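User: We ran a pulldown and think these components assemble together. Before we commit to crystallization trials, I'd like a predicted model of the whole complex to look at. Sequences follow.
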Amino acid sequence: MTARRWSEYRLRRRVNFYETDCAGIVHFSWFFRYLEEAEHAMWRAAGLSIASGAGGVGFPRVNASFDYHRPLRFEDEFDVVVRVAAIGQSSMRYDCEIFMGDVRIASGTTSMVCVVRDGAGLKAAPFPPDVISRFEVAPTAP
Amino acid sequence: MTARRWSEYRLRRRVNFYETDCAGIVHFSWFFRYLEEAEHAMWRAAGLSIASGAGGVGFPRVNASFDYHRPLRFEDEFDVVVRVAAIGQSSMRYDCEIFMGDVRIASGTTSMVCVVRDGAGLKAAPFPPDVISRFEVAPTAP
Amino acid sequence: MTARRWSEYRLRRRVNFYETDCAGIVHFSWFFRYLEEAEHAMWRAAGLSIASGAGGVGFPRVNASFDYHRPLRFEDEFDVVVRVAAIGQSSMRYDCEIFMGDVRIASGTTSMVCVVRDGAGLKAAPFPPDVISRFEVAPTAP
Amino acid sequence: MTARRWSEYRLRRRVNFYETDCAGIVHFSWFFRYLEEAEHAMWRAAGLSIASGAGGVGFPRVNASFDYHRPLRFEDEFDVVVRVAAIGQSSMRYDCEIFMGDVRIASGTTSMVCVVRDGAGLKAAPFPPDVISRFEVAPTAP
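Assistant: Here's a predicted model for the assembly, 568 residues in total across the polymer chains.
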């Protein structure tokens, strides 16, 4: 019997007051946190925690970006859709789209790498098998 | 020769864009971070770091409060004045006032306690001598 | 027919990664945002929005405080219970308790005041009837 | 007499406690705020404010990205260098590099567009002359 592999997760979310700025819209830095919330929710759904530290591994981000199409405002309800875009031996990339209903609000991407301590620094390491076996690349969006 | 003891610290600060909310003013949660910035700056001035972990001690907060008198807005320049209000064997209380020029914007207070690990939990412990010797209670404001 | 009056709201929430600090626990400033999330959710449940601006009124905070009993950690699931503690003509006070299961994590309070613009400043104003009619003081906790 | 044109700004900054996460390093979302702090400081140095609203214009972001090379930790002192990378009639792009001493911590970029209200939405508009005249593209880094 094999457990389900995850390639996509959809998180329903509402804009909190403290996420807005004095231009009246969600501050652009928050979209990166929305992405991360959906990513971590997908890991939990897969029975994992990004912070388990099992096997001494960590998952720092290598890059992150967003294109902003439309603003979000206080109390707007929206969806954060995160998809596994690529998986390597020791790195993983997600794509992310934020929607309000059918309207695309923003599109982002982020990559992270699996690392272990190496003296005072860090070095790339293969994903633990119980991590890598729980994810697969999402089919290309139609 | 004895090192100077610290009882007060004044931090000059400017409101960042991301600290404002869609009411056009600094979100009330930020004042607690302003207080903490001034507290940590006083510790640095005293040659200490709240996060040194030396002797296995930590300093969790027991309480924190603010009274809000007037709003702060984007790019306002203000002063955060933190004062040592009380020192015990294993706890310390600060008062904090936030000013814009002569105008009092907010007044707060916070207490923290010195702790060490105790099995799965934490228990109060005396401050390390090199910490407690660097602070003294501020004279009462006139 | 009268609409239900609200005096208490319970919000289920999970700790996000970005809410933790390098001491490994939720930063104390976040509890004030948790309180506000539950407050605004209660207003929405009552058919209101704190940011509607209807009648030109706003609701700035006058004070806010928390006592911290135990830490929260990444991915902990917790409840934020906000209760209407007092209602005046132009001010309202909430109490807040944060629980993880039966364990009390933190207890807080905040007051806000109903204001209208008055020249360059603000002055207290009676709550609009459609706001005040939707809340009532919670019975004292047993 | 012509005022100086700005193409680069360097902001000295120290990591605050609340900017770190339970992995012990600055959360990746904060780099976008560091970039913005340096951007707004450059505008102030140029005698401008991003939030002036003069002429009814606003400056929403179109995209933002960072590549992360090394982590920042609590109390690390670092420099945020923002450079004008491109200026169009109604858009502007900045590059950003974050250094700790000589060590490159992160590299980012962001674009924003000058907009005016257009019914319920926004449309691109030329920069006001007093804005555009204060900036110029930075020479390519050696």
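Chain B touches chain D through 13 residues (CB under 8 Å). That may be worth checking against your pulldown data before setting up trials.

User: Thanks, that helps.
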